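Per your request, structure below.
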């Protein structure tokens, strides 16, 4: 892959990292706004908080996947590759992004994060969100692969059946019970 393609791919991923917090903030704002019982103000605050945390998290994930993951050693097993190249880097960079977001929130409004219990809750919610996103991202291609595999299996079975029928016709004539072929 040449340098121009790689830089275009990095730029595309950066644009996705800058746009995706706006999209991902919508369901988070819906949950936070519904739980807060503040009406429209709760949804607005939820959206702003989701954006405030979403940008550092997405930029840390982008940085990790763009600059760190390609330098990791290649592993052969699919299970180890999933953990080493996707789950651990994405989870660790999301946690770093959440810590940066909490630090930014605390610098912006002193005392807004609260005690250690609140920090632990934010980090646990970040881990939960990363697990849900990674599970969703891996379940869709797995379903497609499974469906494609079932289709391939049926096609192979049809070919095998046709080959066996052709061999049977070539090896010996089939005696028909009524005297015909």
């Amino acid at each position: 892959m040449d340098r121009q393609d790689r830089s275009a791919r990095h730029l595309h991923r950066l644009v996705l990292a800058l746009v995706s917090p706006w999209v991902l903030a919508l369901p988070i704002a819906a949950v936070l706004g519904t739980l807060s019982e503040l009406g429209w103000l709760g949804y607005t605050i939820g959206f702003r908080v989701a954006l405030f945390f979403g940008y550092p998290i997405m930029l840390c994930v982008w940085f990790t996947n763009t600059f760190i993951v390609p330098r990791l050693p290649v592993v052969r097993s699919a299970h180890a590759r999933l953990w080493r190249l996707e789950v651990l880097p994405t989870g660790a960079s999301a946690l770093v992004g959440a810590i940066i977001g909490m630090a930014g929130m605390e610098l912006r409004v002193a005392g807004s994060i609260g005690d250690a219990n609140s920090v632990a809750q934010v980090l646990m919610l970040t881990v939960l969100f990363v697990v849900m996103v990674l599970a969703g991202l891996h379940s869709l291609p797995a379903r497609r692969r499974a469906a494609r595999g079932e289709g391939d299996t049926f096609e192979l079975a049809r070919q095998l059946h046709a080959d066996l029928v052709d061999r049977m016709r070539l090896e010996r004539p089939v005696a028909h019970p009524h005297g015909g072929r």
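The radius of gyration is 27 Å.

Regards,
D.
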